[in-house]
């Protein structure tokens, strides 16, 4: 009897020691720092928080997510280098910010290339669009998803119905060779300015026009200082969710697959919110009476697209004729 009790006690001691050892040797959770430059209440900000919540619900103990909003960790100027250094693991910069690392993403800035947001969606989901997510891997940047902000509209202090109407005006742009060429082709001038300065620049006529999605126009009240907005849908202002490629591919396959599934869910919700916000803000701008909304007819839109052909040709070699053709094919399928 005493031998049995002794054996049981010894067994319990071994199991307790094994459990303690396992607890001590268990790997710490994978830390993902998700930094972005906008507020929590934007579609991008909400997407970051939803990603964090779903990861905690499904991968608690395996993965930990920290969200840093409003440039609280890194700003526009240094966030991509921080990602390449693996000081941050997730970002969602606008596509124009990647020009230093690849020219191919300039396809999204080509004016009047895509018919509308549905065409953009089709392109991004097909093979060529998916390939573009991987073109920066050799520079430690891997794309995981496209997140929408919206199609861009042209606002100005005069009505823009035909391409020639923009001649002589100065337009605010993000840093982009394509956008500079776009306005040069219209015999207008492009000026790079931070988004935070756009309202004052338009108000004091430092610039006379800008290009923005409806949600950007409304959130910054740009329509109150721009008497005309032409619904051009001439380009897309999108983000790319990116990670450090060395970090991402080092994550165990099973966990990485679960993270990719979560990203798919979050992407759907971000894009749904972005489109809803743009439609709602368009109605708010129209109801305000502050700005006249102009809708192009088919002939006018065709004239704008024709006027922009030289810009497509100028950047065809950098972007790739195959990439541009893939976008045009998507548009043709829609019109058939």
TrEMBL record:
Keywords: Signal, Transport
Name the UniProt record assigns to this protein: TRAP transporter substrate-binding protein
NCBIfam families (alphabetical): dctP, TRAP_S1
Matching InterPro entries: DctP_fam, TRAP_DctP, TRAP_DctP_sf
Source organism (scientific name): Pseudomonas aestuarii
Signal peptide start and end residues: 1-22
Domain of life of the organism encoding this protein: Bacteria
Stored Pfam families: DctP (PF03480)
Keyword Transmembrane: no
UniProt record similarity statement: Belongs to the bacterial solute-binding protein 7 family.
CDD domains: PBP2_TRAP_SBP_like_1
């Amino acid at each position: 009897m005493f031998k049995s009790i002794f054996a049981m006690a010894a067994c319990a001691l071994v199991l307790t020691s094994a459990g303690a050892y396992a607890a001590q040797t268990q790997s710490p959770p994978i830390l993902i720092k998700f930094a972005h430059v906008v507020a929590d209440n934007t579609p991008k900000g909400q997407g970051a928080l939803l990603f964090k919540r779903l990861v905690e619900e499904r991968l608690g103990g395996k993965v930990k997510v920290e969200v840093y909003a409003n440039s609280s960790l890194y700003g526009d100027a240094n966030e991509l280098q921080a990602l390449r250094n693996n000081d941050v693991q997730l970002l969602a910069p606008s596509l124009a910010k990647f020009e230093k690392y690849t020219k191919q993403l300039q396809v999204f800035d080509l004016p009047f290339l895509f018919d509308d947001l549905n065409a953009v969606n089709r392109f991004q989901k097909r093979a060529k669009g998916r390939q573009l997510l991987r073109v920066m891997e050799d520079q430690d940047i891997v794309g995981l998803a496209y997140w929408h902000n919206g199609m861009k509209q042209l606002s100005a202090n005069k009505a823009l119905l035909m391409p020639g109407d923009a001649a002589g005006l100065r337009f605010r742009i993000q840093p982009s060779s394509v956008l500079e060429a776009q306005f040069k082709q219209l015999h207008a001038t492009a000026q790079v300015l931070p988004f935070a300065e756009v309202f004052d620049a338009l108000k004091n006529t430092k610039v006379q026009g800008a290009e923005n999605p409806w949600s950007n126009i409304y959130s910054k009240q740009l329509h109150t200082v721009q008497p005309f907005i032409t619904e051009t849908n001439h380009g897309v202002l999108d983000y790319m969710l990116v990670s450090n490629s060395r970090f991402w591919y080092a994550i165990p396959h099973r966990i990485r697959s679960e993270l990719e599934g979560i990203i798919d869910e979050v992407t759907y919700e971000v894009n749904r919110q972005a489109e809803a916000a743009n439609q709602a803000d368009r109605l708010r701008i129209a109801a305000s009476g502050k700005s006249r909304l102009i809708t192009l007819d088919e002939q006018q839109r065709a004239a704008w697209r024709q006027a922009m052909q030289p810009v497509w040709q100028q950047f065809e070699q950098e972007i790739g004729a195959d990439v541009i053709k893939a976008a045009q094919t998507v548009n043709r399928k829609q019109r058939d």
